[in-house]
């Protein structure tokens, strides 16, 4: 398993781990006396501009492994993941940068259908970019950037595509401090002059502008949540503060449900397909506000009874010395199914297609859990490195290493095909230690620096 990990200053590391790789946190005496940072590699990256990373996503376009990063205050940056020929180590090579049109602070971003990267600012200005996967797609539709202004007070956003590109039907859900959840539906395009800015684009040191008309998206608001008016009348209503919003997976195209986290520590589910505007599920799960919520489909739940879906969440602890909460919540039972232990405060978290959950803790440790709460990997990300975000790059574990005579035989066979693999099979992801990942195969000159004994 390989992860991208970054800190608040935008520095990025690659962290590789395997099942059973459990090490002490960097603050322990054992880790201080015998530091083990094998599998942790600084990833050289020179940002065009900006610092704090809002989000990082990986995709493939024109047979390149790309990384697209949204940085505050208003930068969208595109890099290629490559091996440095002189060092034999991976790096991010800057390709392009664009300034968000309204030059307001980016608060959320995401990747849909593998090629559609969207960003939204706190002022409500939304941009979605289609990055063509092949040269043929580039010729047909080209690289598209569409925008729309949903209005101010946005802190969370989600996008649901019905096809593979932004040209088809899709919905956008938004919410934020003082703004209840709303769902907007794509209603075509219109040409108009951008009232916010001149469309400045930055590519390296080149700057150009377009003061003419732009083809922009149109959206129509089709649903919004409703607060409890009686509770509001008596001063008992919760303060409106949407901190996280996600579209729930569904096989029915006509059915739309939203998973929402609030600043008061509630998990809510809304059915936005009909006229009901109140939450159909509303549970207070923490005294702190929700930092991030993710829905796990029922198909991934191997350790529990099958339910419609469950929710992985972490709260937003603001008091020094106070521990946060990181747990799996069952909506049908109305309670936590398990609590993921280890990190005092979770800075970021996510889940993989195999059902495992991962987190980056304030103690500087990247942890991987089975869905039932068992920690199967625990790796410090480096002394003095205060992590702020994490994304999975490769979910797969490397093949078990052979021992004895079988290894010698395998080495002979591999040696015969080494040249062919190195040059003809370079379209996949490359491990920082040169191991083959989904088709990629690169030889690292100094591989021993990154090896460690396997424990699984």
TrEMBL record:
Protein name, UniProt field:
Ribosome biogenesis protein NSA1
What InterPro entries does this protein's entry cite?
Quinoprotein_ADH-like_sf (IPR011047), WD40/YVTN_repeat-like_dom_sf (IPR015943)
Task: Name the source organism.
Answer: Ascobolus immersus RN42
Region of interest called Disordered, as start-end residue ranges on this chain: 394-456
Give me the stretches of Acidic residues compositional bias.
394-410, 418-427
Taxonomically, the superkingdom here is: Eukaryota
